[in-house]
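User: Okay, second chain of the day. Same drill as before: sequence in, structure tokens out.
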Amino acid sequence: MIRRTFIAMTAAASMMSTAAFAADKDIVDTAIDAGSFTTLVAAVEAAGLVDTLKGEGPYTVFAPTDEAFAALPAGTVENLLLPENKDALAAVLTYHVVPGKVMSTDLTEGMMAPTAQGSEVTITLDGGAKVNDANITAADIEASNGVIHVIDAVIMPPM
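Assistant: Same drill. Structure tokens below.
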């Protein structure tokens, strides 16, 4: 019993120190440190959004993993990263950003959230939290200028 309690306390302390460490960094640096958002970070750089996402905020970012970008049709990411498609790339990325800090406890069924791109995303909770059709696989990763919710798909703005 004592051993289990000690292990649980150690695990909880470890998670809290990791969260505190992440909260000392902005959204971009938190994403870089995570190691599973290299495509997202490269896209943010190509779209010229680094300074924005390092800004004061607060921002809520629904962050697709590298696997989410890899699941897009072949050539999609490469095409978006071309300099002539910078505006389209920025539109896709800003569709993943909601101004303000929205924690998972703030999410409600059918919630409509306006994005930095200008369109809205829909939050559903039935069967697990989702933004549009992307599952939120990890929530409430705090950064100094907002929060990141990890998603398993790239969400596309309405065209």
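The chain has a mean pLDDT of 88.

User: Thanks, on to the next one.
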